Every structure is written in C-alpha cells, then in structure tokens.
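Extended Data, panel c. Modelled sequence:
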Amino acid sequence: MIYGRAWWTSSAGTYEHSGREDSEGVANPAGSGGQDRLAALAREVTLQAAMLVLARTITYATLFIAVVLLYLPARVLHWAGVGRPPTIGAPQAIALAVGAVGAAIALWCVFAFALVGRGTPAPFDPPRRLVVRGPYRRVRNPMYIGAAVALGAAALFYQSFALLAFTAGFLLVTHLFVVGYEEPTLRRLFGAEYEAYCREVRRWWPRLS
C-alpha cells in the first residue's frame, strides 16, 4: 500500500482526498482511521456482550443462593424446630470457615461460566464454550460441590440432622440432574471436546494433579 493525495472535480466544485492507495493506484478512503474506528466498535460490542452475560450470571446465581442456600435451609430448620445456637463454640467456628470455602468455590464457578464460557450456569442459558479452567480443571461439578459444602457447614453450625439430610438430598438431586440432563446436553453441544474432558476429569472426586 502507498499513501497519496487525490483531487477530483464535480458539479459542486473541486475536492481533495487524502487517504491510501494500493499498489494498483486504487484509493482507499477509509484509511487506518476507519479501521481503528471499526476495531474500537468491535471492542465496545464485545464488552457490552460480556457485561450482559455477567449480569445474567449474577442474577441466576443470586436466585440460586437465595432459594437453595438460604430459603430452603431456613424452612428445614423451622420445620425441625432448630434455632440459632446460644453460643458460638468450636463446631460453629469450623462451620463458618468451611462454609466460606464452599461459598467461594461456588462463586468462582459462577464467574468462570461468565468470563470463560460466555454463558451462565442456568440450563436454559448455557455457556458458549466448554469451561475447563479454574476449579473445573480438578472436578467436573465444582459448583454443586461448593454448594453442598456450604449446606453441610450450615448443618454443622446448627447441629441439625434435618439440614444434613437436606444436604444429602441436594447431592442426590444434582447427581440425577447431571447424569440425566447436563452431561447429555454437553455431549451434544461440545462433542469430542467434552468426551476428552470427561476422560481426564472425574464427575465428583477431584483430582490432585
């Protein structure tokens, strides 16, 4: 490409054009400035799309936490007649630490879906790319594991067998959901890539290396 300056005349007068010419002398009026504007527009559209995905992810995660980790356990404790412990002892302190780890794992997974997978954990709004980074490098369902850890920690905090049974029921339901819906859907969406991932990473038991 070579740069040049062109003049032409029309019925409205004489005009000057400063742009690029290719090797055959054909003018390219857009020039590098036009390409820069297109690149900036593309970046803006990509950023807006990413922010929209993140907003949807936060919305779905908030609903999941509010219903599964807060409302339903509170109802279980109410039905079981279990109240807040009168004192904070060693079991409660351990439960708070373990629960924080479980919640952190679940939130890490949620943001991995949005930032890496360009989608959400919701079945009706799945990721556009297979997520195999972060905690998903170690185990295939870390979000459910993190939520179960948080629920188990709550059972320890309240010393509630009813809440422990709820945690076991949560794991059973998620296992059936994973086997019956999630895994067939991921195989259909990602094919051989997901099959290779399943061979390397286990469903529930994290790998250490």
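The CA atoms of residues 44 and 145 lie 36 Å apart. This feature is highlighted in the accompanying rendering.
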